[in-house]
Design a protein that fits this description.
The protein is of the alpha/beta class. The chain is built from twelve helices and ten strands. The strands form two sheets. Strands 2-3-6-7-8-9-10 form a seven-stranded mixed beta sheet. It has a three-stranded mixed beta sheet with strand order 1-5-4. The protein is globular and about 60 Å long. It starts with about 40 loop residues before the first helix and ends in a 27-residue tail after the last helix. GO terms for molecular function: iron-sulfur cluster binding; lyase activity; metal ion binding.
């Protein structure tokens, strides 16, 4: 029986999609064996439609006690992400919904309805303590589906009304739709936005992050957020040894010139099904680099494709990982970046909904 993460030979290229196949999720009781009979060659340019399921949310916030995360609560309006970033560490979460972390993750999405009501209920609990909520802790809250559903916007409206701080991580230009709202939140020190950058190579971006904004578009987002007075930083993530690590200095320079004031980075993470998905992507798009990239990854992960240990899962360990960290620190100093911090966001003015009447009238 094949492993649930074993890619078929001759993985397909689907227009606008990052994954090249659909591995069985790790909870499935049985797994099919991948066989190459040549059918994929005729399907290589096939496009896949996006489907959206509805979920009536029973709760809004996800809590964590991880010692290496700068937040203890997060909120994700959508499950799955149409950006289709092949490396996304959130892909394995789709298995909990009996869906594949591969193509399903980017084509079979779940919209979480009722989040404003559930979050309002959370705020009204007697023991609730206000601390920044991280939006996009798992998937991008400004992915294409947000243009129609506006779940993120409605959440931001509640957060502003309640004077509750939030941090946002995105690689989408759609965040500019909410510029006036975010600017008002910034006036009350309630928001900080991080725009993630992976590469300045538009060609690489098209296969690595097929439906995310272009590198230049993301730099424009940084510039417009900064001009509007919204605190903005950059997240250089993921740094992929042997593929994107040579761009660290140029990425930080470009982000600084655009107006980013804080910067941090993360090493590529390959949990569960993400490792075989990423390796299949490498063999499809960069076969001449595949062996080198995975060799460097294992050097940074104690000989494994991934190591989930607290303290090293985001930065790796070993000589090559240390070199990346040193280069990032040096370039950050050169371009006067501050360290990533949630300090300065306003938690003192929080007012729960019951103190303002019924927000849903």
């Amino acid at each position: 029986m094949a492993s649930p993460g074993e890619p078929p030979q001759g993985s397909s290229v689907y227009k606008g999609r990052g994954a090249t196949y659909d591995p069985a999720n790790r909870f499935a009781p049985t797994h099919s064996i991948a066989e190459d009979d040549g059918w994929w060659q005729e399907e290589a340019s096939t496009t896949l439609a996006t489907e959206v399921r509805e979920e009536n949310s029973k709760s809004a916030l996800s809590w964590n006690t991880s010692p290496d995360l700068p937040f203890d609560r997060s909120l994700n309006p959508y499950r799955g992400c149409e950006h289709g970033c092949v490396y996304c560490f959130a892909r394995p979460s789709h298995a909990y919904w009996d869906l594949s972390p591969g193509l399903d993750f980017e084509t079979r999405l779940i919209a979480r309805n009722g989040l404003v009501e559930r979050l309002s209920e959370e705020f009204c609990k007697p023991g609730y303590v206000c601390r920044p909520i991280n939006l996009s802790g798992n998937t991008d809250c400004y992915q294409p589906l947000e243009a129609k559903r506006q779940l993120t916007r409605r959440l931001l409206e509640l957060l502003l009304a309640c004077r509750h701080p939030v941090t946002i991580v995105t690689k989408s230009t759609l965040v500019l739709r909410d510029l006036p709202l975010l600017a008002e939140m910034a006036e009350h020190r309630l928001v900080r936005v991080f725009v993630s950058l992976t590469s300045l190579d538009a060609g690489l971006k098209r296969t690595l992050e097929p439906r995310a904004a272009s590198p230049q578009a993301r730099l424009k987002v940084i510039k417009e957020l900064n001009t509007a007075g919204i605190p903005v930083g950059t997240l250089i993530s993921p740094v992929i040894p042997g593929l994107t690590d040579h761009e660290i200095e140029r990425l930080l320079e470009a982000a600084s010139r655009a107006g980013a004031r804080t910067a941090t980075w993360m090493l590529l993470r390959l949990p569960h099904e993400v490792a075989p998905l990423f390796e299949a992507w490498l063999e499809t798009h960069y076969p001449e680099r595949a062996a080198k990239v995975m060799s460097l990854m294992r050097q940074c992960r104690g000989g494994k494709a991934y190591d989930a240990k607290f303290g090293t899962r985001f930065r790796g360990e070993g000589v090559f990982a240390d070199l990346i960290a040193q280069r990032f620190a040096r370039a950050s100093r050169q371009w006067n970046f501050q360290s990533r911090t949630e300090q300065g966001l306003n938690i003192r003015d929080f007012r729960p909904p019951h103190a303002q009447g019924n927000l849903f009238d």
